[in-house]
Amino acid sequence: MERVNDYLGKHLWLQITLSVLVAGAVVLLLFPERSVASVVTRMAVASLGGVIVLTVVRRKEKRAAGGSVDDLVSLDRKLRRGEVPTDARERQAMRDVVEQRLHRTRHRVAAQIVLAVMWAVLVVLTALTAGPRQAVGVAMVAGAFLIWLVLYGNRQYRRLRTMREALTTDAGQDNPR
């Protein structure tokens, strides 16, 4: 799994492509009467905003990590494992990446609530306007997505807080007085 994470971390285009294809597959399961080409095209167009945001965020994180994708992937791997970097330059890069991510997650609870409300509205509207197959399918996707979002988001947030604490606790090692 580690190799898959590293490969996907290095190749942003692959993450985007897989996301569009999986989203298209889910829509095709829920609405089988639609053509594959129209669904995948619709998913790609609908994902453009997310792709732009993801690209901008990735560029900032890459810059903070030292300028290369390999540096960012290495820091991300250490963050997942909970390994605190020992090299002073790498520690500063990790601090910068962690602070950027923590700053982006400062409104995560409100965002999770808004997403839950949006999905609930989507489920209700689907139940009112589509058939039972689509309503049950959207409800299942919504439930799975929201559970994953909360569990994985909280896990990532704990990792970031733990790493920031470890980096500030050992800050005296970087700046001897």
UniProtKB/TrEMBL annotation:
Transmembrane regions: 12-31, 37-57, 109-129, 135-154
Keyword Membrane carried by entry: yes
Alphabetical keyword list: Membrane, Transmembrane, Transmembrane helix
Protein name listed in UniProt: DUF3040 domain-containing protein
Organism: Streptomyces pharetrae CZA14
